[in-house]
Amino acid sequence: MAIIRFGALIVGARGTLGGATLSANASSTYAKAWARPSNRQSQTQTAHRAALGTLATLYRDLTPSQQSAWATYASDPAQQLVNQLGETYYASAFNWFTSINLALRSAGAADRSDPPSLPTPPAPVLSSLIYDVSDSPTPSRVVLSALSPSLAYPHALAAYVAYSLGINSGLHHAAHISTSVPAGSQPGSAATDYNGANGRIESDSASGFVDTKTLAFNLWARRLTSGVFQQIFLAASPPSNPGFQLNFTAGNKFRVHGRNAAGTVILSAEENGTTTDTNWHQFYGAVDLANPGNSWMYKDATSQSTAAWTQTNDLIDLTTAEYSYGASQAQANPYHGELSESWLATNQFLANTQANREKLRTAGGLPANLGSDGSAVTGLAPRDYLPNGQSQQGSGPAYALINAPAIVPGPNPGGSPYIHLNPALAARFGAAQLNQRLFVSLRVQNPHGRRGPQSTLSATSQP
């Protein structure tokens, strides 16, 4: 069916009418004889057609209230579309049901009976494209700009790569794209929501902890309540000796605090300012009580002065009876906020150099890849490494979940600044594509199947 726009005269036409296909290029509007397109019946094409038939049946089987919900969704102004002539229109409820569920199936997700409730994802901001025809040693990938919006976890990503060789051109789809960095981890992709009421994780095992004068720490925190004392991590021997703590004070300062076995405070290190907003912030540093001048701490990209710190040359008591994140084991001073990439290495030290800091925070301000067990920072696995704020990946024992703190999106929900193209896609390009101009189009699909605007970028393939 053709789309024709009428004004004082006809000003535009698209589509097919009476055996003629109407379109336009940069020069003018034109018409050409309609020709039946080839029917390749590829595996993908056949599967897509079968899915259309299945989804039509599923839509008919929806309850009246479910079909009404799709109709309401389709008529919402947020779903307004634009045709080839720049005019707005609304797709039907059935069309939206089919489109959403085809997108979900392409990402290996289950069908939806109800319309999406999540908003349309933003367009990613692309920085560069690396396309390696051999896919080795550098995997083909799109690099996202630091300005790219954070993407709620989990997301599917849909992209295509186009190339041009003389008069021949090709288009290949990469429907399955991973967001992993080459080592396979997804730094900061998820976090734990400590609700400030009854959620925590705990352990009674001191395995891996020793009393020490040196330690290094890292965590990403998003504080949701301020003005009260909140315990992030606590190593304690109740009732009177909190040996080591990471917390927020009632004055809204992040603090690293330690006592010796006699209960005397030998370490108190606070951030210079305060943390009262609900944004993600990273706190990281290292302590050397035998050499206080070596101790350091950063909040995000800003160094914190150590001039007012308490540092006594003694052993911090870490071989205590109880260990917990999110509150004490008695649920005292609960933390209300989110926590990700918790990393605590005792009896280890990390010198304050840019290279070392970038082992914890990338130059772009994102969570760094600490390695599957957290050992990428110092070469040794830390006692605690909780990438999602609760699951132990370090050398220490697992923590028990109390009242099941929820997993939520972390400070870098996209998983990494890289979007790796499907390696199988590279196999479709051979040496003939070397040094040819390539074009990538990338869009994000949320867990409800709604796809956002696409971003495009070009690059030259490399060996």
Low-confidence stretches: 133-139, 150-156, 162-185, 415-435
| Helical content (DSSP H or I, runs of 4+) | 10-25%
Known CATH architecture of the largest domain: Sandwich
Distance from first to last alpha carbon = 46 Å
Helix count equals 5
Biggest beta sheet summary? 8 strands, antiparallel
CATH class of the largest domain: Mainly Beta
What is the number of domains?
A: 4
Question: Per CATH, what is the topology of the largest domain?
Answer: Jelly Rolls
Strand content: 25-35%
Write down the Rg: 28 Å
Query: What's the overall geometry?
Result: elongated
Helix and strand composition category: mainly beta
Mean pLDDT: 78
Q: How many strands appear in the DSSP assignment? A: 29
